[in-house]
Amino acid sequence: MSSFRTDANAAAQALLNDETLSRSTLWTHFVAEFTQAPGLFPVGVTEVPHEMVCVPAKALSRAAGNVSGCDVSPWVFDAAHTSAAEEAEAPEDGPELDQEALNEASLTGLRAWALQLRRTGFPATELPRAAEIYIDVIDELIGRPLGDETADAIRRGANTMKEAMEQADLDGVPPASAAQVMAVTEASASSGSPSAADTRIVRLETSTPLEYAAGQVIPVMQADRQGVWNSLAPALPPNELGQVEFHVRDELEVEVGDHVTLGTAYGPVPFPKDSTSPNERVLLIADGTGLAAAKAMVFELMDRPEHPQVELMIGVEHEDEFYDLQTFASLASSAAARDWLTVTCVAEQVMDPESSEAPAGCEGLRRVWAPLEHLAAATGTWWGRRLILCGSTARCTLLSDALRESGAPAPLVIAPDAEPDWFCQRQL
């Protein structure tokens, strides 16, 4: 094991072992160095966000050769999966590492993170100073100076981020976009259900078209919530009119006429252009407001000359949480989609069909009363299909576990509330 690997792991562990201490220490240093720094963060906080600790730690851990975490989770790479004790006991003549490849993997992740940080307004030119802050803080946390190679790696990472941000500026890529709220509709109003779990459909417009792919997520900040970003999946594919639709519960509290800021889209592209084939079979599972991402993907596929065979499962816990079903009933029965799209509505709990509040059935949609994870994990459901899950991290974890236990292949997961992982993006 090289001294760099030992030192880089020590630095990563120092940042993660007591995250509260790391975040507050970084805050103190950043505010002292950059007097305008508090304006980038939520009002009243006294520590930097979680990502300002975990992302640099992951980059260091990745450069040190810790890569197995990528196989553990579809969303989050555990930078601290190797304990300090394990590192201390690891043999000096461990497996040979391709350090150049490891370094490039770390830098690639940092480039992706840098493009996201542009939305905060932090100047690219200040990133080298930020690197020195990290070096000073890590020195303080580990109680000794970092080795020169590790300190230089941190500086190199900062310069790589600076170059990525500056290149995006030169390419004319906006760091963020403003959008105005045009409509806020209770989801129940569009489906006839009395509840729909308090889901609201928020429609916005931007002055210029947004660049994203159906299935990706976009960071969103309300005008009155400084520094508070929530990632949401658009329910419409990108369009020339700049129209955006989000399905939200408590992520946004907006009214018609309000403005929000939209960051750069991120995440894998489930259906890259020119990649669809009528021979492909896809199981697309949408749980709760995960319906937004699924809706965008289905609408985007409709505009393609060739379509995969798509089985869409819309899952809820209680029947009165269904919403926007009429849209999918119309799609499934339309000439444009009926040959390749089937839709099944899955609810674990069913309302009394005689109740005046029971949602009306939608012609063309199959209904199944069972836990979504049980139906999805049935061998006949997933066999021979590519799997895509859309929903919250908690629900997607439950579904992924059920699928894995049944022997299904690993799914692509679209969980907007998950911690983005810039170092282990799954390739399609």
Structural notes for this entry:
The protein is α/β, with parallel strands linked by helices and 428 residues long. It folds into 3 domains: 168 residues, Globin-like, CATH 1.10.490; 86 residues, Elongation Factor Tu (Ef-tu), domain 3; 134 residues, Rossmann fold (3-Layer(aba) Sandwich). It is 36% helix and 17% strand. It has 13 helices and 12 strands. A 6-stranded antiparallel β-sheet has the order 4-3-6-1-2-5. It has a 6-stranded parallel β-sheet with strand order 10-9-8-7-11-12, sandwiched between helices. Strand 7, helix 9 and strand 8 form a beta-alpha-beta unit. Helix 1 crosses helix 6, helix 2 packs across helix 6 and helix 6 runs antiparallel to helix 7. The radius of gyration is 23 Å and the shape is globular. The two termini are 33 Å apart. About 6% of the residues have low confidence.
CATH architecture name of the largest domain:
Orthogonal Bundle
Roughly how many Å is the radius of gyration?
23 Å
- Unreliable segments (pLDDT under 50, ≥5 consecutive)? 69-94
Count of individual beta strands:
12
Instruction: Give the spatial strand order of the biggest sheet.
Output: 4-3-6-1-2-5
Could you say how many structural domains there are in total? Answer: 3
What average pLDDT do the residues reach?
Answer: 87
Estimate the helix proportion, in percent.
25-40%
Q: How large is the share of residues in beta strands? A: 15-25%
- Determine the N-to-C terminus distance: 33 Å
What general form does the structure show? globular
Major sheet size, sense and barrel closure: 6 strands, antiparallel
Following the backbone from N to C, one meets helices and strands in this order, namely HHHHHHHEHEEEEEEHEHEEHHEHE
Class from secondary-structure proportions: alpha/beta
Question: Would you tell me which CATH topology of the largest domain applies?
Answer: Globin-like
Number of DSSP helices?
13
CATH class membership of the largest domain? Mainly Alpha
